[in-house]
Amino acid sequence: MKQLSEYTKKEIDEMRELLHEQEFDHLDLGDLKQILWDGCVGWKNMEDEQIVEIYETHYRPELED
């Protein structure tokens, strides 16, 4: 796994956008109802470290195959 400092801001923003789009594509009405009830932290408001960790967890294995 790469260190956070090895990524550029642009790369992290691209990861953030990909994760956002992926999650949006899989939302259903029940998810939206829950978000309206509980609220959520948006991808834009997450720390870069969280973005990289989530991205690497979900996409890095695919990149290494």
Notes on the structure:
It is a single chain. The chain is mainly α. The chain has one domain. The chain contains three helices and no strands. α1 packs across α3 (48-64).
By helix and strand content, what is the structural category?
Answer: mainly alpha
Unreliable parts: none
- Rounded to an integer, what's the Rg over CA atoms? 13 Å
Shape designation: elongated
* End-to-end distance: 14 Å
Per DSSP, the total helix count is: 3
Strand and helix map with partners:
Blueprint: H1 9-25, H2 29-38, H3 48-64
Helix pairs in contact: 1-3
What's the quick description here?
The protein is 68% helix and 0% strand. It is elongated.
Overview features:
single chain; 65 residues; mainly alpha; 3 helices; 68% helix; elongated
